[in-house]
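ingest -> validate -> predict -> emit
validate: passed (alphabet ok, no gaps, 198 aa)
predict: started
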Amino acid sequence: MSLFKKLFNKAKSKASPKAEKSKYLPEVPLPTDEKFTYNFRKNGGKFLYCENNEELLEAFDNILLENDWYEKTVYCTDEILKSKFNTYNLKFGENLEASFFLSQSESLIADAGAILISSNQIKEKKLEELPDNFIIFATTSQLVDTIGEGLRIIKNSNKKNIPTNITTIKNFETKKENDFMTYGSSSKNLYLLLLEDL
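emit:
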């Protein structure tokens, strides 16, 4: 009886071999948006995807409610954002003692899960000078794979006046004491409002 089981089991295993992935096959790359989401969350960022402006305003309202930021001072130099979020009784200005920093970004860097910003957003300030809490507004068309692509976009869109103070924000959690990879970087509590525009 066991002889027949061995014969039939071998026949079955030959008829339906398990598909094994060869170690020599290249890894299938993740799409840019999935790679960014994975790396951004791994870095400790809070990600809110919005399909339209109504969802964007609702997500912004929820952030203010969660952190009790209504009627607080906001560090914001962007006139577009000031008009977009002007119905929340916020005091917009350039006071570094503000409750949070509201800004747009240059690009979203997928392979690092980072946000690329420049003097267009932060003027000549250092990251550690800005408030500890950030709300960054971005669109899905700003997603790029590498920092090189992000820098190329900055160069191509600002040919006459290339911005200075270009940096990435990629540390969104408090630093671990012995983590030398975050040495010199300033960790921020960051919310990303990502609006679908493609």
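Residues 180-184 have pLDDT under 50 and may be disordered.
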